[in-house]
Each structure stands twice: as C-alpha cells, then as structure tokens.
Amino acid sequence: MTSPAREVLPHRHVLTLPAEPAAVRVARETAEQALAEWGIGLRHPTVGPALLILSELITNSVRHAAVLSPHVTVTYAAADDCLVLAVHDRHPYQPPLYGALAGAGGGGLATVMELTLGLGGTAVVRADADGRGKGIWITLPL
C-alpha cells in the first residue's frame, strides 16, 4: 500500500488492527492522539467529520471484508493544509464511492462521500497490485 502521502506529507502514522468492531474505537482514539501530536486541534472543523469518515470506513471493512481480511490497516497523514485518512483491507471488492451518493442504500459510504465532498475533499479506491485488496483514501483540506 503506497501513496504519495508517504513522500510529501510530513506527518504519518500507520496502525494495523484485527477486523473486529473494537477497531473503530481504537482507530478513532489513535487518530485523536496523532492529530494532537501534529498540532491539529480536535476542535478544528475538519476533525469531527474526519473521525466520522474514519469510523464509517472501518465499520465497512469489519462488516464486509473481515471474512477475507482478518486485519484492517489505517494510515493517517497530514501537512499544514491537508489531512489524509486511508483504510485498507484484503477483500477484492472495490466499492463505487461516487455511486454511493446516487443509489439508494448507500449507507455508510454515502455518509463518507457527503462529508468528504462537503468539506471540499477527495476520495479514491486504490487496488492492491495483486487485486486481492484495496485502500480507500480520503484527502481533506485543513
């Protein structure tokens, strides 16, 4: 799982967790700690929605990918002007992020996309080189 974030963003943290419901809480707490260490206040208007986006993406991995992916990996990265969150699992299905807004029953992905686009951010699904997994990358302006 490589990303431009590794090369150009000065702050980066990677966390791998069991694909279990408790992963949501641990990932959120880790995000809060990382953001605080990086000088991004938890009251920043992007932080609350970013934590909700993170929760939804991890919940989706736990619910839908755990059968093939016993772990979920979360990447947090930031610079002065942006925050990047990525959730990676080893399930091959690549959800149509932008289609979640148009179709009924988009659920958590619709929420992710509404929040991301509402904040002026971007979302992309990146397949693993072997096609057996993917990462969903969210970039939000700060």
TrEMBL record:
Keywords: Kinase, Serine/threonine-protein kinase, Transferase. It comes from the Bacteria. It comes from Streptomyces lucensis JCM 4490. Pfam families: HATPase_c_2. Gene3D superfamilies: Histidine kinase-like ATPase, C-terminal domain. SUPFAM superfamilies: ATPase domain of HSP90 chaperone/DNA topoisomerase II/histidine kinase. This is ATPase. The lineage of its organism: Bacteria, Bacillati, Actinomycetota, Actinomycetes, Kitasatosporales. Signal peptide: none annotated. Residues 17-110 form the Histidine kinase/HSP90-like ATPase domain. CDD domains: HATPase_RsbW-like. GO terms for molecular function: protein serine/threonine kinase activity.
